[in-house]
Amino acid sequence: MRVAHQAFFRAVKRILQGRLAGMASRLRLFWWSLAAFLVCFFSLGTILSLRAGSAQPTELVVVLGGGGPERFATGLQLIQSGSANKLLLINRLTSEINTAKDAVGLDEFTLSTDVLSRNSWEEAIRTRAWMSEHGVTRVAVVSDPPHMLRLAYTWSRVFAGTSLSYSLVATQPAWWSAWRWWANRESRRFVGSEVLKLAYYVWHY
Fold it and tell me: What is the model's pTM?
């Protein structure tokens, strides 16, 4: 009888040890998964804006549509600093177009506008056509920081197989912080939108 009891207790002990080991393994997986999620969550702003670079000498500056006044201000600053002598404004305000004319002067640079592009992909497509038509090979693309990763994907796809090159220039809006993007309503909205749009672009294009 005593032997039977000992065998029974040993069996119970093995079962408990197995279950505890399984629980410990699942708990470790949970904590590692949670840590990975938190790292991805808090670094998402940095990931999205990572492809932005510094302004380089170029032939054309393109200010993309949408966003706030920072895009136009950044593009105009590049022109005034002598980085390029051609400016393409896509779906920008009439007041911004007039400001560009007054600030630089039509005799000193070429100002063009595009009101037909409906999204980032079409902006790249139409800019490529404009560059081919005007003999331009280098372009600096201006947009907001969380837009950079999707732009890098888009412009690299659109320019693939050509001799054209692009660089991405990010604005510096007051509402943006790469590491604290979640603390601001505007940046939360932008980041959430970019994640969905990037997934769609990778799937669709």
Answer: 0.82
Q: Cα-atom radius of gyration of the chain, to the nearest Å?
A: 26
Question: What is the distance between the alpha carbons of residues 5 and 8, in angstroms, rounded to a whole number?
Answer: 5
Q: How far apart are CA 96 and CA 76, in angstroms?
A: 10
- The correct CATH number of 60-204 out of 2.60.40, 1.10.287, 3.20.20, 3.40.50 is 3.40.50
Question: Tokens at residue 67, please?
Answer: 């966003």
Model pLDDT for residues 172-187, shown as the tens digit of each residue:
999 999 999 999 999 9
Question: Which residues, other chains included, contact 145 with Cβ-Cβ below 8 Å and sequence gap of 6+?
Answer: 45, 48, 49, 52, 170, 171, 172, 173, 176, 178
Query: What CA–CA distance (Å, rounded) separates 154 from 201?
Result: 8
**Cβ neighbours for 139, distance < 8 A, ≥ 6 positions apart:** 58, 59, 60, 61, 62, 127, 131, 164, 165, 166, 167
Would you place residue 123 in the very low, low, confident or very high pLDDT band (cuts 50, 70, 90)? very high
Give the neighbor-by-neighbor strand order of the sheet with 138-143: 110-114, 86-90, 60-63, 138-143, 165-170
